[in-house]
Protein 1
Amino acid sequence: MMHEWRFVLAVGSLFILAGCRPAAPTAPPEPVSGVDVVHYEVDLHLDPATRMLQARTRLTVQHPDTLTRLSLLLRGMNVDSVLVDSSEVEVNREGSHWPIPLSPGKDTSQVDLHYHGVPETGFYERASRSQSVFFSDAWPTDGSGWLPGIHHPADPATLTLRLTIPFGYEAAATGTPQFLDTLGGAVRYQWHLDVPAPTYAFAFAVADFSIVEASVGDTLPVRYYMLAEDAADADLLRRTPAALAYFSEVFGPYPFASYASVEVPIRYAGMENAAAAFLQPELFRTGEAEVVQVHELAHQWFGNRVPIASWNDLWLSEGTATYLETLFFEHADGLAAAREQWVVLADMNPFRRRTHTVLVPAEPQHPNTLLTWVPYDKGASVLHLLRRKLGDITFFEAFRTVYTRHAGRPLSTKVFQQIMEDVSEQDLSDFFAYWVYEDRLPVLDTKWDAITRTLAWQIIEDGGTLADVSFELQVQQQNRIVYVDVRERKAILAGWDEARPDVHPVGVLMNVR
Ligand SMILES: [Zn+2]
């Protein structure tokens, strides 16, 4: 997902900022160890006039053969019947939780739920351009408004989704389109996601879309589902295949059978729905469509294919996607373009100075309370610093190892650190303690001698984590900009004015004074 504080001005009507959130909700329950929903088969019939869904979901669940009850989350819908291995069972809901009795002695169960209703969460109708758009939005557990399941990132699954809608609409969804039936006055679509992803990345949207086709080579289809009047704006996404090809080369092949982006008026700038990312229509007016597209497609590798082990590990998904944005621009547009983005990532503005900067909180948090700049921009900045510390060859080899080992296997921060240590043959415990688990930032202490035009600096309070690490400082005075290696400790700016220049660390978060 790409969140709004980076787009607050651009997407004025929708934002969540630290400070205007309600009191922190409690963390959702952790999944039961050994219980794994492997596949969701979902049949939805949508009546757009009423937003009513008639639904059937079949879950294939692997579990210990001693498990007697499976708890599924489904909020607000009317459940008509529940079947376990084809036999109807009685279930008494406990709030939004449905304790499903399992047949004894089995380690795989098939659970069918038939249900209907107008979802109170996770499915919306919103006007955009000149039309109504119907869309789901599952993050973090809001998918439980239409999908019974285990809504936790550590339980990714494959998905078959069938959606029946009246004639006259187009639909897009998670996975690869498989077929389309016409039935009387309706159309039935089917999509299949052949590689597991978290349920928060399951989504569908219904509107009058125009589909613009592209591809990576002749093997990976790429589609842009644009609201019909915006069809020409698909041109703003023309480098999508290049970004897919670049990440495939750097980390490993793109994980799914197709990629699409879908223009949907969601509450975020973008959402990384598996193989079908959603992009806010406003992005096509503000020039941010490409950067959000690159962020959401980076999540197909990190977040979707490599799921996070707990909500508290969110930075491994969001910090990585944010850093990968800049890697693509470094690759496609050169170092100068990436440097500008790294300066912005590491800008400690007054708002940021007032926030806690712990990347992985000690106690489980509700995922909504984690949506600050910290997992995104501090997360990306820590990855940039790791790259500077380990060197490009080791850093990228370690990241490829993370991807290869954890495709389909939840990734925790502890394991991420372990892989970085194994590949680099360095002990990174002090580095992770300081930058990931503690609320600390170094200070860049600067002195300006206006007579000799000499800028001098030293790093303090870094806990020793920046010793000998090479990174740049951007030094600026009006339209003069130079980049200097932080290890040089001073720069003589011959010919510059008397006024003190501004100093911005390139990609490394620190307080400059
Ligand atoms: Zn994201």
Protein 2
Amino acid sequence: MGHASTRSVALIGLSAHVVDVEADAVPGDAELHLVGLPEMSVWPARARIRAAILNSGTAWPDMRITVSVTPMIPPIYDAAADLALAVALLAAPGAIPPERITGRVFLGELALDGGIRPVRGVLPMVAAAVRAGISRVVVPADCARDAAQVPGAVVMPVTQLADVVDQLRQGTLRDHHNQEPEPAPSSSLAVDLADVPGNQAARRALEVCAAGGHYLFLSGDGPATMLAERLPGILPRLNHEAARQVAEIYSLAGQSHRAAGITPPLSAPHHSETPTAIFGSVAANRPGAVSLAHHGVLHLADAPEFTRPVLDGLCRPMDSGQVHLAGQGRSIRYPARFTLVLDARPCPCPEGREECACTPEPRRRYRARLALLLSRVAVRAPVKQEDRAAGTGEPSATVAARVLAARVRAAHRLAETPWRTNAEVPAPDLHTRFPVAPEAAELLRSAVTTGLVTADGLPRLLRVAWTLADLRGADRPQLDDAAGALELWKGADSDGTR
Ligand SMILES: [Zn+2]
């Protein structure tokens, strides 16, 4: 007879829950029984744990062992609990001193040869353990740097089950001294707006979108990607809480190396990516490209080339700031509030230029693929191939200072509300709580009556007008701001295919 208990962590989306792993050993067949879990999800785990223990040179206990995981939050077994299960089932019959596994969290998937594989999402899992008062965490060595970022965590990196068993027996499982996280490579800071030749209208549009959080459409054959890559560099730095959220999302995606500290992230998926890569997977609990853009920038280059499910599916995160996935008996939400940059060449032909010889119809059909997304976009600008003779613009630091000042002004006005940027303010509140100057309102209303702007578009124009007022330090939008918002609304669409 014997009993042992330890802890692991289960993840649903980004929310991590500490779970108790308990093992009981009684005389009987030398079998492992896992209770409280659907059999289908458990049998690979049972086979994996058995092989890992035997291949580590540890004798399989000659007893009947029952292991339970409580509460079992996701209805499917998470392989990150393998290591906790293995040490608990060895400790119950006394193969490891049971007291040495209590008060610790064990994370790691076992390989058949007894190796300990890295798991995704170590950052949110270790953070949950520390919040629950358990600071000592045993993690796969490849995840130790991630785990060590959590303040208060005492991290023990491990690579082989055999070593874990030996060290637990001898009482020598060592703590890893937490190290300062390495400064993340931040490619977006290495690029500067001063590198982009000409394109003054597009630069201005980029600045307005950074200041107000508006979505941007760049049309033409110019340096759209250069501009999009420079947007994170003019956005305000992430605060501590936002940087933590971004780091946790990248940890769950298995891309910790890409989480760029306090620089807002840039996520720029290729148009050949699947909807799962863009929106995430409920089965794998893996966030997609839209969530990797959270608190940062989502850039869709050659946007009409993306598949229909991706283009249509983007509307929900654009409207709600999150992705909702359901399947396999669970439902997951990932955050996805981003500044969107879409770009499209004028024509789908290989030339893809304004001057190509194609007829208007293929051009119209190409642009029409974006109709749903463009109905949510308030700022448009042309991008042209220009050389240095067209002038270089201001450096990113100068633009970033204006953006920050405008954001501070907006945040001050919105202090008593749940919103932080103009783009987030709901339409009814724009009218009741944040009225613009009467002449500005009149100009925008007439744009609706003449059919230039749809009724749905009016709130988007009002939000941009507020951002223009914030950028020039004014108390509320005047006629010029409304006119400026209309110019940005019309943007590049000279061919009338909005
Ligand atoms: Zn063409």
Protein 3
Amino acid sequence: MKKLLLLSFLCITITSVAQDYNVDLDYYLPTDVTYNKNIPTPKSIIGHEVGEWHVTHDKLVYYMTALAEASDRITLENRGTTFEGRPLVLLTITSPANHSTIETIRKNHIGLTESGSNALTTENMPIVVYQGFSIHGNEASGSNASLAAAYYLAAAQGPKIDELLKNTIILFDPSLNPDGLQRFSYWANMHKSENINPDPYDREYDEVWPGGRTNHYWFDMNRDWLPVQLPESRARITTFHNWYPNILTDHHEMGTNSSFFFQPGIPSRTNPLTPKLNQELTGKIGNYHAKALDKIGSFYYTEENFDDFYYGKGSTFPDINGGIGILFEQASSRGHGQESDNGILTFPFTVRNQFTAALSTLEAAVGMRKEILDYQRTFYNEARSEGGSGAIVFGDEKDAGKTYELAQILQRQKIKFHEVKNDFTKDGKNYKKGFSYIIPKNQKQSRLIKAMFEKRTTFQDSLFYDISAWTFPLAFNLDYSEDVALSQAGEEVTDLQMKIQNAPNTSNYAYVMEWHEYYSPKALNLILKEGLRAKVGMSPFTLENVTYDYGTVMIPVQNQKLQGAALNKFLTEVSKETGVKFTGVQTGLTKGIDLGSGQFRAIEMPKVGLLVGEGINPSDAGEIWHLFDTRYDMLITKLDTKNFGRMDLSKYTDIILPATWGSALDKDDTEKLKDWVRTGGTLIGFRNAGRYLESNELLKMKFKKKQDTAKAITFEQRGDYFGAQVIGGAIFEAKLDRSHPIAFGYKNSTLPMFRNTTLFVEADENSYNNPIQYTASPLLAGYISKPNLEELKNTVPFKTGGLGRGQVIYFTDNTNFRAFWYGTNKLLMNAIFFGDEM
Ligand SMILES: [Zn+2]
């Protein structure tokens, strides 16, 4: 009998595993409702069952389009396209009755965030839930679950679903990262065996570089909710501010051996600007997830590993916008099924957990509807009352471009700002009309403004899931003051335009352009690409009563491909395209270096290679590719490390080595690279590539060795102890030697630098070799441990040295961080254009 029982138990186990790979739609769906036969199932449109294959983005869109056509509960809109041209679709799901008055419902809902909201009643107001799936493309169970979830919402029948749809507006975003999802689905599907092989060593579970996590330019899009630099984020943030959702869910995956995580995260790591009630409500919503997962027998955990600190993440961004963000993390099968500590983790199982959490979110939304709506109203009432009366000013009298880019972020985040009424000076900085803007503190988004502008240096916890500081005016290296009178404000800016400079006056002698504008490298590249000669001035000079700073670019008129009126016309076009100002001058005689001086050095047209592929950190490489390609319109060749040995490097003037993962180049590659530098190449390395440059004698420098001995730390505390020594991302002040070419285009003598490494390079004994050096008290914002701060003081984030006829340049940190660290982008451009002069 016992034997028989065991045998039948085994049979059940075996069949259930077998079934888990080949499930039908019923595997996911609740059985307490009936389903409308007129609504197409996913399989009837895309040709396979949910979880049988990894859905491609194309098929996902086919299905959502078909659902929207078949169901009067669903409308579909296309909000733009990804870099690869895929549609960014959004489904709005609610009852047909709500659809017929959707704009009124939306306006009423927005009313909760405006002044006068107390006059509104929330008794019968629907709650707004934004459900977003798989922002990391290779965490695909979310987007695959969206097929079943959308089907359920369209097809389920009965009083329960009617109640849900009556009380909820669902903004349903089936794929937050279409390009990444498509890239990953092709990988998982192309390696699927007829007999699914759960061996983790199978190629199916090990994507080729750079993987599907990121978008087209290899950005982690779940860091871009606040800076909004990527097209996918722009579409999403527009929807967000159009609706101010009460709950926003963000479906992810984590390690294969894990279970399922839902927020709240670690309490001590919640951003202090987030109201306490937000986390309490998150906990209460969590009870719904727990109940639903208990019911299907799935394990889960909460209040560990993940946090709610950086507002640029999807699950944290809503917390500073009157909503509640919720992170879901499902253990990943990565392909169709994989062995794990919890037995075989099948893909359909992961999809079912995501589906279940999507539904329990909606159940919580209905159950807690009034409570959460009232929370939102209170959030904005309090935000308005604590804003204060003054204003913030930011800008740069020499850089309208960067000022414009920060203003664009404010506009995307629905923060109101004004022109300055008249030019004025504050704390020694000039704020000029067109080059600066004023933000009144007393406005609806006062908390978001605080989150973007504050410089926090004290923290309850010393561990961070992500960066600990992101102060925007520091990231942009803009002058700013948080303490100006509102009376300095002019007209509110409602139609932001990039500043257009006056067309240059005609010259038969030369044109000059200062190097401060953000887009001046783009302008210089256009000039060189046209085949025109340009030179850079190594010193300041005064000409026709105007003073020009270090690094001013001069374009002679004579002996050029374009001359006279044609050159003037060309530079006028360049100015229009880049916002950079050119001045035609009538004489070469200056106070300072004359235009014919040897202190004007010829600039070579750069031909830049970027190392990518196995061994290279894709995020860092992608940021550089994106910077060149989308900001400066400069060609950059992506050199794959695996073919490096076969490449002819002689055509490149510059090669960039981003941060690495282990070793990117072997011994032969390294010798080849060294030979190329010796013959005149400029090699530019970032972050841990410095260890490689140093150990291979490409660049002489001394890294400080830190002694790390744990004292009075228990076994249990060891993780936190080492975690606290990490610099996850904070902002530090460096002083600049403005006469050094690396600092050309910087008008101030200090520069805020972003740092996310613990590499400390000792300063050179010759001070002229330390053009960028951390100050004696460098912390501006963010977390750093006391011992690390001691180490950091007076070290250098930049090092350069000659090798043969070439040059090696090194940055300890990422100057191109996440496409929003505009303030240090010019450092890399200076290395590219002026590296020969260092
Ligand atoms: Zn993720």
Protein 4
Amino acid sequence: MTVRFTPVLLLFFALGAMVVPASANGATAPRFSQAYVIKATLDVEAGRLEAVEKLTLTNRAFTAIDHVDLSVIPRALGYLTMDEPVTVDGDEVETEWTTSINLRVPVDHLEPRETTTIRLPFRLDVARSPDAFAARTSFENGVLSFGHWFPIVSTEHEVYGLGDPQISFTADEIRLELETTDVVGRDALACPGLVSAPEETGTSWICESTDVRDFGFVVNPSFRLAARDVGGTELRVYTETVSGEATADLAEQALIGLSEAFGDYPWEDLVLAEVGSEGGFSMEYPRMIHLTRDKVADTYVVYHEVAHQWFYGQLGNDQQREPWLDEGFSDFSARYLMGIGENQCSTRPVNSEVFAWKADATTGGDWSSCDGYFHAVFYRGTEFLTAVRSAMGDDAFFAAIREWVTINRFGMTTGSRLLGHLAASTDADLEPIFDAYLADYEVVAPRRRHTLQKII
Ligand SMILES: [Zn+2]
């Protein structure tokens, strides 16, 4: 296996200051400031959401752009209707589906620092989703969960039935103004950043999150709320079938343990909500966790999903090309908190793409055999990180990861840069470990830090 050191600084200067170094093996963030305001009306009994999304984008690239790619996962599930025109700055535009979920919206030569507003009316008729999507957007047992549910700035890609189906980038703000067609209790809506809700019962809620790369919420008129403060973070747990206290205990332990290990949790609240599905896979969104009914108080699952608030929520990555960056670290974190090791039987590279396993658009794939996704990316990922931790020693390893989180908070990370950061954070020779667990990997040395001298 070849290890290549890419001199990033040289590349940067060779191509000139206009070029942002391309990411190796991962999605490069579109250079936008983005803010979403979604006004929606929900018929809880019918599972129907009528929404109008206003997306405000400012071009932060150095060149003009002529289109925006939006990921719209509900289209792959058959839930989406868009029969009103999309407008850009008030003018109707002709959009194009370039993959089954990628909506390309033309923006007329948007210059650097220029702002445009895209208006997208859409409707979702939600039904029971396949297992991989059961905790994302789904309607089961009277519970409506919304995850990966609205058109969001992304890279042009296809949906896939194994792993995470969407790549998104930190927005300045995502705001949901939700009305329900029927009166329900105040706690029927579980969302992060709840800024407005009825006193006891009603039909209007507002949720607003800043510095998040996505936004999920769950609606269930039978929800009970368990809330507590954890070191200044408001923890809210919404459940129907069990008391939320056991879940809150686990989430509290994870918040405390992972803040110590990887740096402070950066948002003011964390919400966990039980979805309607008995099984399938629980799912993480920034400040929000959707738990399937069989896993509401499962120690491993709650710890794993809270860990995603660091590895995915704060540190983005291309979850299709490099799923080990979020899943390997979340598995490692859960086991670290539980004090247990991995027990894996895979021979596949830890840095396998999700496409290494055959799957359909929204179903299928080998998730759980020895040769499957979990063993290779999650469990063997933990074995890999544990080997790196042993070689570096605990102090150096955790300090390096905390620094990695600080440098990249709310941005996008790649495996090649992480490996370069780890290698630069220790005198230990990590290359034999990289060779043993990774295929076709690259190590990108960290950018040199410049000290700016203030001239008085
Ligand atoms: Zn995960």
